[in-house]
Amino acid sequence: MGFTHRASHNNLRIWISRIAISVLFSTFLGMTPLWAGDTPDPTPEYPEDGGVQAILTNVTETYTAVGTVKPRSEMIIESQVGAQVENVHVQAGDSVQKGDILITLDNRQPASRLDRARQALHQARAGKQEAIQGVRAAEAAYNEAKLHYERIKKYYSSQAATKQELENAESGYLQAKAGLNRSKDAMTGAEAGIRQAMEVVSEATVGLGFTRITATAPGEVIKRMVEPGDLALPGKPLISLRTEDGFRIEAHVREGLIGKVTIGMHLKAEVVTLEETCDAVVEEIVPYADPSTRTFLVKAALPLINGLYPGMYGKLLIPESEQEVVMVPYNTVIRTGQLELLRVRQGETWQLRYVKTGKRSGDMIEILSGLKGNEEIKAGRLNQP
């Protein structure tokens, strides 16, 4: 009796367990629980929902080239002279016009050099005036000595003057002529001194102008890299200026794919922070591979996007190969935990089938395994988009 009682107890437990499993499985399938003696309904659970076709199509596989958003035209402002920064007149984000003052430097030394150059020019001009007076006096002495010499020559030819008088007149004439030449040389030297002094003044004026750093084109200040009191040196960046509207993405493309990228080519670009995907047009390919990364730098223009700023992280998608894949509407996939299922038509019924999904493209999603293509599928109640 004890054995029969235990066996009945075990049969009862097995029967209850089977009923529980049937209830759970039927609930999972979105159907009415199957009790003992019930038969499954072969018709779809939602006959009002029509099926859709799994599409077999070619999808382009892409290589993701990591890049950075940068201005299409960026100008780095540097100093031409070494001097201390006196004032910075702009902030990042300010709009400037051509000729606007960006930075002023300490101008005391250039101003002092300009004053000395101007004084030297004044002295050179004064020296020229003295040389002019000397030339005039020498010309007068020369003319007088020449007339006296010619008169004595006539007297000597008519034996009205002695040979000694002729020699003295000739000597005076030659001395006056040499004096005139020296005066003219002094005049030439004075003029050369003026030209040299004027060049020094011009250089000093330019040097003084270098202490006022201005915008050479209209644009927007991207970055300010100095503060008052800093030392500006030739070649040291002071301000970064975006001089044209628009941005572009600069990405590094591996050398095995660079042959597939051409100037003017339209590629897809992603701005990760803004979750934006847009068309980018290749503008430049730097014809040099980075030996450390074996990549080429590709620059592609981006369209106007709200909230886009230089330095943002972006991706450039390079077409790599084409592959035949099965695509289904994203909302037909049933997700429960880590499982992914589809309702596939089998004759007059819908059958659950395990699948593995891949990349999503808009409202469609790729099916990596579980379908061959052209099957009729349907969304179910358990669908979790």
Features:
5-stranded antiparallel β-sheet; alpha+beta; 6-stranded antiparallel β-barrel; 32% helix; single chain; OB fold (Dihydrolipoamide Acetyltransferase, E2P); Elongation Factor Tu (Ef-tu), domain 3; 21 strands
Structural class: alpha+beta
Percentage of helical residues? 25-40%
Spatial extent as radius of gyration: 48 Å
Order of helices and strands: HEEEEEEHHEEEEEEEEEEEEEEE
CATH class categorisation of the largest domain: Mainly Alpha
Overall residue-averaged pLDDT value = 82
Using the 3D structure, state the CATH architecture of the largest domain.
Orthogonal Bundle
Tally of contiguous helical segments: 3
The CATH topology of the largest domain, please? Helix Hairpins
Number of strands: 21
% residues in beta strands: 35-45%
With strands numbered from the N-terminus, the spatial order across the biggest sheet is 2-11-14-13-12-15
- First-residue to last-residue Cα separation: 57 Å
Could you give the topology of this structure?
Blueprint (H helix, E strand, L loop, with lengths): L1 H27 L23 E2 L1 E17 L2 E5 L4 E6 L6 E2 L4 E5 L2 H50 L5 H47 L2 E3 L4 E6 L6 E2 L4 E6 L4 E8 L11 E6 L4 E15 L4 E8 L10 E17 L4 E3 L2 E8 L2 E6 L1 E6 L2 E6 L6 E3 L7
Antiparallel strand pairs: 1-21, 2-11, 2-15, 3-10, 4-6, 4-9, 5-8, 6-7, 8-10, 11-14, 12-13, 12-15, 13-14, 15-20, 16-17, 17-18, 17-21, 19-20
